[in-house]
UniProtKB/TrEMBL annotation:
Protein name, entry field: L-serine dehydratase
UniProtKB keywords: 4Fe-4S, Gluconeogenesis, Iron, Iron-sulfur, Lyase, Metal-binding
Position of the signal peptide: none
Serine dehydratase-like alpha subunit domain mapped to chain residues: 190-454
Organism: Spirosoma profusum
EC number of the protein: 4.3.1.17
Keyword Iron-sulfur assigned: yes
SUPFAM superfamilies to which the protein is assigned, alphabetical: Serine metabolism enzymes domain
Length: 460
């Protein structure tokens, strides 16, 4: 084992919560909620001294946080809200009136938090991650309690100072950290990919097989609810861009072109845009693996269910295969747009979607075309920038989800053409290239809205 084994669960990767950004909305909400919990554990004499609470946002959280609703997400977390149970309409109401403050309990005291207490810092901050937030409980100028959090993509957060203990390989029955090691486990134990992924998921979550399957079904239902809502909702998306929703129009076009060979692609585009537009509107979506890429997998799974008519068991197996690819990218590179650009978000989602389609199409499970399809999809997203106009997850993000799904479908076709063994580049190799590319990419192109398409804002 070259590094600690992957111990991320399907539920961790596919999180349910409000859009528009897992790193800017879900992550900060979870961090603020964690800080609230820690304040409740302070000694009573410390709590009694408190008179203010301040939130400092750095890096991409500062540069594009307004457009992503990071300030609202932080307030929601401090109020005790959790991503999966948040009412998106109530979330959008927070901070709408700059004069309104919100009560945060600190022991027996109530500290009011509002717009003046949330600081979008423009200065550089010495931090190991692009998305950093510092929360402070103060008495005048004195800091009584302070925590630093990093939002690392997909709604995952790290608290500074938390011991980073290596995962115990015995915590999963079939440990792996790379695709090479995963394939070695299949060979060593003569097991299918489905068997290994399910066994590990049961061990990580301590759920039964039936409970794991039930959770995957729930995740798919959340995804498909987002698609269905997006197909119904018309009008203008929130924000200064005033972007019109397109999904309902495309869906009607596709239904009117049922005899055309193009209808298939138009349906797929409509489904992906529908979920992405719901994300942009702050609706409840599923990180797949991020909120910014939350249209690819929902669009493809909706297509697989309603057009290919795959049964539940097949969809679940496809979701496990998709998760395995997401695990590998997160473990060996990053799924954060602030770290990798959009190749970390839509690129990973496209690879996951390709693996999903490939697994669903198989009678006898063969991991070679699954690996090949994921590799092809990532390969053709390398270097993709994250340059949202105005900091909103709208242009180019919404259409980019549809394009990522189409690439996923083509990667699946190429990988299942009978030539998967001809692939010269392994998935492990392309993930290494992805990490290096992200490291070399200018920060201007990584979720800061300082370059690329983001500079076209004046034309909107």
């Amino acid at each position: 084992m070259t590094s600690s084994p992957i111990t991320t669960s399907v539920s961790d990767l596919f999180k349910v919560g409000p859009g528009p950004s897992s790193s800017h909305t879900i992550g900060p909400m979870k961090a603020a909620f964690d800080f609230r919990q820690r304040l409740a554990q302070l000694q009573a004499d410390v709590q009694q001294q408190a008179d203010s609470l301040h939130v400092h946002l750095y890096g991409s959280l500062s540069a594009t946080g307004k457009g992503h609703g990071t300030d609202r997400a932080v307030v929601a977390g401090l109020l005790g809200w959790q991503p999966e149970t948040t009412d998106p309409d109530e979330l959008l109401k927070l901070l709408r009136d700059a004069s309104v403050t919100y009560p945060v309990p600190v022991g027996e005291r109530i500290i009011q938090v509002g717009v003046p207490e949330i600081h979008f810092e423009r200065k550089r901050y010495d931090s190991p991650y692009a998305n950093t937030m510092v929360l402070k409980l103060q008495s005048g100028e004195q800091t009584l309690a302070e925590e630093e959090y990093y939002s690392i993509g997909g709604g995952f957060i790290i608290r500074k100072g938390e011991p980073e203990t290596a995962a115990d390989p015995r915590s999963v029955p079939y440990p792996y950290s790379t695709m090479t090691e995963l394939k070695a486990q299949l060979t060593m134990y003569n097991l299918s990919l489905d068997d290994v992924l399910m066994a590990n998921e049961m061990a990580i979550t301590r759920r039964s097989r039936a409970e794991v399957n039930q959770r995957i079904d729930q995740i798919l239902e959340f995804m498909h609810k987002a698609v269905r809502r997006g197909l119904r909702h018309k009008g203008i998306l929130p924000g200064s861009i005033k972007l019109s929703r397109k999904a309902p129009i495309l869906f009607q076009q596709a239904k009117g072109m049922s005899q055309s060979s193009d209808s298939f692609l138009i349906f797929l585009n409509a489904y992906c845009l529908a979920a992405s537009e719901e994300n942009a509107a702050g609706g409840i979506v599923v990180t797949a693996p991020t909120s910014g890429a939350s249209g690819v997998i929902p669009g493809l799974t909706f297509l697989a269910k309603h057009h290919f008519h795959y049964d539940r068991a097949t969809l679940r197996a496809g979701m496990l295969a998709a998760a395995a690819i997401g695990f590998l990218v997160k473990h060996n590179a990053s799924i954060s747009g602030a770290e990798m650009g959009c190749m970390g978000e839509v690129g990973t989602a496209s690879a996951m979607g390709a693996a999903f389609l490939t697994r669903c199409s198989q009678g006898i499970v063969d991991i070679s075309p699954i690996e090949a399809s994921a590799e092809i999809a990532i390969e053709h997203h390398l270097g993709m920038t994250c340059d949202p106009i105005g900091g909103y997850v709208q242009i180019p993000c919404i259409e980019r989800n549809a394009m990522g799904a189409v690439k996923a479908y083509n990667a699946y076709l190429l990988a299942t053409s009978g030539a998967a063994s001809f692939q010269k580049i392994s998935l492990d190799a392309v993930i290494k290239v992805m990490k290096a590319t992200g490291r070399d990419m200018s920060t201007k192109y990584k979720e800061t809205s300082e370059a690329g398409l983001a500079l076209s804002a004046t034309e909107c």
